[in-house]
Write a structure and sequence with these properties.
The protein contains 12 helices and 8 strands. Helix content is 47%, strand content 15%. An 8-stranded parallel β-barrel has the order 1-2-3-4-5-6-7-8, surrounded by 4 helices. The chain binds flavin-adenine dinucleotide.
């Protein structure tokens, strides 16, 4: 199933993102994550693609195949220009096709100084076009409610997003954000720009101060005062921060759904218990 078919059915799509286990973690730990996520029946699960070259990224393919064939949940494999040249892309696409994985999130990626970047595709739009030309895959792409960090201004960012959609991206997933007004303003701008594909809002529950500060410094998302108060008050109390972070994410999601967003993409950080708690709290809200 191509993911764009999930939208427009009168309910909010709910999807989850997982990452391949780190080298230091047992590879089997992904089963624990997926066993937990299958109980909440997400519409699809996406699997990130590391910066460490295509060999390393066999794991993305294997996990996507597992989700599709063993858990019977549609899977979306991420793929980046910087880690995969044309040959790698051709090989991965043919393997994913064999595995029955039909959806790809086409990204540029960020250069990891430890690995020289591949140069066959410069921007995600080129990868989107190339994959769509193969004809077999649903292709999604990333978008940035607060603008991409490298972008000189929101206008050029949205212009490049439009090019990416015109190149064949059928569905967009947003970068994490914490202020819904940023997302609603972004939606208004992209619709005016003639970008009409479904857009999912990326939500990351805040569970630890250090990890959220790291994420924010990497992706440039801003922290609204409501959230900085939570971090200041509960930052040194992991249990309290976890409760407050989950409550914040639920509040964000119910407001987004009330505002008519088409989909919620939960960055699970491979934590199925948190995903379950959030999914349980929005189960009725999603159906209205
Ligand atoms: P692009 O769409 O290529 O945009 C990158 C920058 O170039 C933007 O500033 C854009 O405005 C500009 N631009 C685009 N086209 C042009 C053009 N033709 N001319 C000039 N400028 C242009 N990274 C990973 O390594 N692995 C992952 O699995 C992963 N998953 C992600 C999932 C989501 C939902 C998101 C939001 C991000 C993810 N990332 C991942 C991070 C992503 O790779 C980075 O944010 C990266 O910096 C940009 O990727 P992109 O696909 O948005 O790039």
């Amino acid at each position: 199933m191509k993911l764009c078919e999930l939208f427009g059915q009168g309910r909010t799509v709910f999807s989850c993102e997982v990452f391949p286990p780190k080298k230091t973690a047992p590879v089997d730990s992904i089963y624990q994550t997926l066993d937990g996520l299958k109980d909440i029946r997400p519409d699809f699960i996406s699997v990130t693609f590391g910066a460490g070259g295509s060999q390393v990224n066999q794991t993305t393919r294997e996990i996507a195949a597992l989700i599709e064939n063993q858990y019977h949940i549609p899977a979306m494999a991420h793929l980046t220009c910087v880690a995969a040249g044309k040959e790698d892309v051709d090989r991965l696409l043919s393997e994913l096709k064999e595995d029955g994985v039909e959806n790809i999130l086409a990204l540029r990626g960020d250069v990891n100084p430890a690995y020289p970047p591949k140069t066959d595709f410069k921007y995600a739009g080129e990868l989107v076009r190339y994959i769509r030309e193969q004809g077999d895959f649903g292709v999604s792409a990333a978008c940035y409610p607060e603008g991409h960090l490298e972008s000189p201004d929101p206008v050029s960012d949205i212009r490049h997003l439009k090019e990416k959609v015109d190149a064949g991206a059928q569905h967009l997933v947003s970068q994490l954000f914490f202020d819904n007004d940023d997302f609603f303003r972004f939606l208004e701008r992209v619709r005016i720009a003639g970008i009409n594909v479904p857009i999912e809002a990326g939500i990351m529950p805040v569970l630890s101060e250090s990890s959220i500060q790291r994420m924010v410094s990497m992706c440039g998302a801003s922290l609204p005062s409501k959230l900085t108060r939570i971090l200041a008050r509960y930052g040194d109390h992991p249990e309290a921060l976890r409760e407050a972070g989950i409550a914040y994410a639920i509040d964000q999601i119910s407001d987004l759904i009330a505002g008519g967003v088409e989909g919620i993409h939960l960055y699970t950080m491979n934590n199925p218990d948190v995903a379950k708690q959030i999914a349980g709290s929005i189960a009725s809200i999603r159906k209205v």
